[in-house]
Amino acid sequence: MGERGEEWEAVMLRKAEEEESKAVKKVKLVTSDGVTMEVEISTVKEMETIQAFMNATDTDNSIIFPLPKVSSHILSRIMELMSGEYDQELVKRLSHEELKEICMVANYLNMKTLLHLTASAIANLIQNKSVEFVRHFFNIINDFTPEEEVQLRKTHEWAFEGVDED
Amino acid sequence: MKRDNSREVRRRNRITVLLTRDLIIQILLRLPVKSLARFKSVCKSWFSLISDPHFAISHFELALACTERLLFLEPTVPEVRSIDFNAPLHDDSASAALNLSPESHCDLILGSCRGFLLLDCSPSLCLWNPATGIHKQVCHSPIASDMDAMFFTFLYGFGYDPSTDDYLVVQASYNVDSEVATRVEFFSLRANAWKEIEGIHLSYMNCCDDAKTGLLLNGAIHWLAFRCDVSLNVIVAFDLTERSFSEILLPDDICQCDFCDLGVLGDFLCLHVSGVHCPAEIWVMKEYKIQSSWTKSVDVSVDEIPTKYFSLICFTKSGDIVGTDGNNGLVKCNSEGQLLEHRSYSNCRSHSLAAVYTESLLSLPYDGDQAEED
């Protein structure tokens, strides 16, 4: 009897473990536009901000994580990039706005690979561009006086050669 | 005016993403120096960010956008050329004209380290960062100015000691009138003074007629020199942190060094014999300081080069070999030693000087009061 009892206990324990592991396999992310996206736990592993939260709370089966700064559009783009193993070709297809937004979200969620990828893509994009293009791209207002700007250009004249058309 | 600006920002805010300063830094760290020099004009905050010495150090050390260029100059001409040697030689946009500031001429290029070139612009030496224009004059060592002593300086070098965050100009000389005892001196940029290294008991001489300029690898400067006591050509290495010397043996098959010089291929030391009417030879030391690891890597044919001469300068990212034609031209060969391109930059028959430098935004220690930007 004692032997059977132990067996039974072992079975129940295993069952409970299975259930537990099944339960935390998915995480629900709620985007800024109110869409709930269920994602694999493996996906969340790369999102260090969420991972840290999960480690800290150390709970149960229903983890819901609100992302008030991330739209469903951008989150699905990020999922595409992750499942495509961060293919450069996928990055090239993003619009400038998408690229900037994904870069911001990667920083916010502390996704190192995605941050490196998008920051490098933006650097590549602007590398040979004019100062005017860059101001427009980043939405920056020129706070130099015309005289200061002329002087700066003169000092770094060589850097203004061979710039691409905007 | 200011109010208009902030209203403008708010209006634009609604339609487009504004990246935080942290992210802007992440992006700027991935740009080459040329783009950064241009983007100093974007706005005041970008100007101060890009000019920040800490940013310059991160940018150099992370090396996410590391670019190497070739400084190519004719000794008497004030205008010098900075060439992106990874691009085709005939691509005009890969070559930029720079003014050799503040000097009007350069007799020799004595070293290259962290974006700075050490030039001999007699009557003084000059440290110059071609990418930023930062420069600083360094006086010659006391013995170089002492005409009675009859010292011949046969080794020059320039390097960085990370343990003290200091740049060193190193030179070795011997007295032509007396016993062959090598005298080694270095200039510390932090101390702003020359100092002799005493008690080294070395007896090296020049292994060819010209003075040699050292080559940086693994925190040490390397030169070819002739060791008098055993009558042997060797590679002398000076460790910039330890301030001590060691030797590396040449391949057994190289007996004389008249047309030899050192180079760097990736992380490997290499030795090349200039080709004069015969192929140039390139040897690679596959394991640092292990003599048996010297391997003859490639012969560069000079048959198709108009001057019938080739002397190695560097390797491109893709493994092509770049060298001079002995006059004012550059030659590019593939890794098999076959000619890809030859370009002459001037009709003058003089011998151009060349040195590879890494583009950097770095400034020199104690820059504020000693060096100046253009």
Characterize the structure shown.
The complex is a heterodimer of chains A (166) and B (374). By secondary structure, chain A is mostly helical. Helices cover 60% and strands 9% of the residues of chain A. Chain A has a single domain, classed as Potassium Channel Kv1.1, Chain A. Chain A has helices at residues 2-23, 41-45, 48-57, 72-83, 88-92, 96-108, 112-126, 131-138, 146-155; strands at 26-31, 36-40, 64-67. A three-stranded mixed beta sheet of chain A has the order 2-1-3. In chain A, helix 6 (96-108) packs antiparallel against helix 7. The longest helix of chain A is centred in the N-terminal third of the chain and has 22 residues, at 2-23. Chain A is elongated and about 90 Å long. The mean pLDDT of chain A is 85. Chain B has 374 residues and is mainly beta. Chain B has two domains: 18-66, no CATH class; 67-370, Kelch-type beta propeller (Neuraminidase). Chain B is globular, with a radius of gyration of 23 Å. Chains A and B meet through helix 6, helix 7, helix 8 and helix 9 of A and helix 1, helix 2, helix 3, helix 4 and strand 3 of B.
